[in-house]
Design brief:
The structure holds 2 protein chains of 2 kinds. By secondary structure, chain A is mainly alpha-helical. Chain A has helices spanning 5-25, 44-60, 71-82, 101-104, 112-118, 127-131, 156-159, 162-172, 182-195, 209-221, 238-253, 264-272, 286-289, 327-340, 343-350, 359-362, 365-370, 374-383, 393-408, 414-430; strands spanning 35-41, 63-69, 92-95, 143-147, 150-155, 278-282, 302-305, 316-320. Chain B is mainly α. Classes of the chains: A mainly alpha, B mainly alpha. The interface between A and B is medium-sized, with 39 and 29 residues.
């Protein structure tokens, strides 16, 4: 065979026409079904949504997979994906503490165009839940998912116990009743530890998110704040000192052994096992404690109130879409966000214990019939105050947590810890 | 004669080229998987790269190192790392040597003991930390339950500032000791019998044989084991991450955890890289010592 130019052209033409015939005879390739991957905190709220996912898949054909992990590992895992060329997670659950950092780093897609294109109605969302997540007039990076305002869970059987009431009256001259001030709460906590055979408070004192969130309740209830009216750090105040002194007093004399290293999981287990009188925690923990199958010892014996002193820590999670995903994935993610935050799905979630971000869910008759305490929950949400939200919120949480941990362990005075925490906050605000 | 030299040079050239041809793929692979990350980390440590402003330029020289060295937390972390490494390595070596000596005797079911000993080593440090965290949970953990059963007070193993680091060290010793046992047991098994027989004839007692024969002859293996473990301990990250998050206060914030906090919580990849680079220099120094000890022990053996 001679390999001349003509033979080569003939062979090329045959190959090209063959390929064309072959491709025409094949059916058009179906569009790849999109699977949404989300990294989720391993809490009841996630499980509530997870149970409804088959419904979404049936409606839209979009599959959603949740990867559930503990809160402390979430930030790092998300950051490593968001800084990659393409993120594995194509729909995001974002804590309000990262609501300054993630948009500042340019990792989140602006959802405003999605809202406008789909004519999505944001008016039912409680305004503070949108503000908490950094909503501005021009941009919207996160749609509220659920709130985690904190209140006081307490044992109604212990506070109503006649023997304990008499003992408390003898010891303090006061009636044993639901505390209305921070001082009263710490006093009752210490009394319960000494007299009721339980820890007065299940406290989450591990350095970082656990103790920072917990302390914020004490700070707000004592009348303190992280920032003053001028937006400057204001932790070295008399109110903050009172809050920290009471926090240290409670963790050392009212809380369970090991409170300085305890996490949210530890406190939940303790309260659930009936070994604690109270815990300052997220209000939506109440349905978990009231579940006779999960917590038979305390089910029906736990009440919820606004943080003694009047203000608790208020936080929330939002849904976001990473920039480093394809337009198809972003559209699918937006479809999911609209569905999961719709009134119908929010009510279904609320009936399972969801902490709503839509006002119309708090007013829903079916929800109130099943959970009368949602009225108190509404008060907890409306009186809540927020941790400072800025680019370095996560770092500040770690910095504050370290100082609180030093004070709780007796390694620093409350004055020194608060000065370091205040200076650190100002330093990060100025960065 | 001239041709012979030419042929010789040509042969040497061929040998040189063949050598490089064989070595090059491996060297290239090493350059990619080790050299590139190392060079990148080096550049990162002198750059202005943060997660918020992800750009290397402008380079800031040693500013990141200076900022780290000026931070008292860095020195605290370094001092903790030194103490932690010293305690864990000594603990692992002393207990490991004791077990290795016991296993060196003719005992029944020796393979079973070795198999059991390798279990902690085969477990990932994260799993080990999670298991121990449950065991040491102050209220519901089994450790305090046992303490109470024996009439001892309950302890806050990981929440007491003075105790947390040593609890972590004990867990580390538990996991890493099996590696030390295996290496030392192999070293002991390889020791010649003659000196012991001569010592027995001379009437030397057991402890005298241990001090004057076993320890000196085991020195090269022991030195290598200690250096390997020292390097391992300096890099400890998993245990404080899972057990304490560096707390209570700063009681367990070792150097690698300090670097992690700088990089990921402080969003300062450059400062985190600088801290990691200091850690790398320490580990490199230990590695140089390791090879020096290895070479000296080998040349010592050669002279015998």
């Amino acid at each position: 065979m001679t390999w001349n130019k003509q033979t080569l052209i003939k062979m090329l033409m045959t190959a090209v026409s063959g390929a064309a015939v072959l491709s025409a005879s094949l059916p058009a390739r179906a569009a790849e079904p999109i699977t949404l991957h989300a990294l989720m905190e391993d809490v009841p709220e996630t499980k509530i949504i997870e149970a409804l996912l088959p419904e979404f898949e049936k409606q839209t054909g979009i599959k959603v997979e949740f990867e559930k992990i503990g809160y402390p590992d979430m930030h790092d895992k998300l950051v490593s994906q968001l800084t990659a060329s393409q993120s594995y997670y194509n729909v995001l659950e974002v804590d309000f503490l990262w609501a300054g950092e993630f948009p500042a780093a340019g990792w989140l897609a602006d959802l405003k165009p999605f809202v406008e294109k789909s004519k999505y109605d944001l008016t039912p969302f409680i305004p503070s839940t949108l503000d908490l997540l950094g909503r501005t007039k021009d941009q919207l990076f996160l749609v509220p998912m659920y709130n985690y305002s904190m209140g006081l869970l307490y044992r109604t059987d212990l506070i109503g116990d006649e023997k304990l009431k008499a003992a408390y009256k003898t010891a303090t001259g006061k009636e044993l009743a639901l505390p209305t001030t921070l001082e009263d709460y710490v006093a009752i906590s210490k009394f319960m530890k000494a007299n009721a055979g339980v820890a007065g408070a299940a406290m989450q004192g591990q350095r970082g998110d656990p103790n920072s969130m917990e302390f914020s309740n004490y700070l707000f209830s004592a009348g303190g704040s992280y920032l003053n009216a001028d937006g400057k750090a204001s932790l070295d105040t008399a109110e903050a000192k009172k809050a920290l002194d009471l926090y240290v007093d409670n963790i050392q004399h009212g809380a369970q052994q090991g409170a300085v290293s305890a996490t949210l999981d530890d406190t939940m287990r303790l309260m659930c096992s009936g070994s604690a009188f109270s815990m300052v925690t997220y209000w939506w923990m109440l349905p978990q404690m009231d579940d006779a199958a999960k917590c038979p010892t305390v089910a029906g014996k736990v009440g919820l109130s606004v943080m003694p002193g009047g203000h608790g820590e208020s936080g929330g999670w939002g849904w976001g879409i990473p920039k480093n995903t394809s337009p198809e994935e972003q559209d699918a993610a937006w479809t999911f966000i609209q569905w999961v935050q719709s009134k119908d799905v929010s009510v279904k979630r609320a009936l399972e214990g969801h902490a709503p971000v839509r006002s119309d869910v708090y007013d829903d008759a079916a929800v109130l019939a099943k959970y009368p305490f949602y009225k108190t929950a509404g008060d907890v949400v409306s009186t809540g105050k927020s941790f400072p939200i800025f680019t370095y919120s996560a770092q500040y949480e770690d910095l504050l947590g370290t100082q609180l941990s030093l004070a709780a362990g007796g390694q620093a005075t409350s004055e020194a810890a608060l000065k370091a925490a205040s200076d650190g906050l100002q330093g990060l605000l100025d960065k | 004669m001239h041709n012979a030299i030419k042929k010789g040079l040509a042969a040497r050239g061929r040998e040189w080229r063949t050598g490089w041809a064989f070595a090059l793929p491996g060297l290239l692979l090493l350059a990619i998987v080790m050299g590139f990350p190392l060079a990148y980390a080096c550049i990162l440590s002198i750059s202005s790269m943060t997660l918020i402003k992800p750009q290397l330029l402008p380079l800031v020289g040693f500013k990141n190192f200076a900022s780290m060295i000026g931070d008292s937390l860095f020195w605290n972390a370094l001092w903790l790392t030194v103490r932690y490494s010293a305690v864990t390595v000594v603990g692992e070596f002393v207990i490991g040597l004791g077990i290795a000596l016991m296993l060196n005797r003719t005992v029944r079911m020796k393979p079973v003991y070795f198999a059991v000993l390798t279990i902690p080593m085969a477990m990932s440090p994260i799993s080990v930390a999670l298991i121990w965290r449950m065991l040491l949970q102050p209220n519901l953990g089994i450790a305090n339950h046992l303490m109470e059963t024996f009439g001892l007070p309950r302890l806050d193993w990981l929440g007491t500032p003075g105790m947390a680091l040593w609890t972590m060290a004990a867990i580390d010793i538990w996991q890493q000791m099996s590696f030390v046992v295996l290496i030392l047991a192999a070293g002991l098994a390889a020791l010649p019998r003659d000196p012991y027989e001569a010592a027995e004839v001379d009437g030397a007692r057991g402890w005298q044989q241990f001090v004057y024969i076993t320890l000196p002859m085991l020195r090269p293996v022991a030195a290598i084991t200690i250096i390997i473990q020292l390097i391992n301990e300096f890099r400890t990250y998993d245990l404080p991450y899972v057990l304490t998050k560096g707390g209570p206060g700063n009681a367990t914030e070792v150097l690698s955890f300090f670097a992690y906090r700088r990089a990921f919580l402080g969003l300062s990849l450059n400062e985190g890289a600088a801290a990691a680079f200091v850690l790398l220099l320490i580990v490199l120094l230990l590695t140089v010592i390791f090879f020096a000890v290895l070479e000296r022990s080998q040349s010592g053996e050669g002279r015998k």
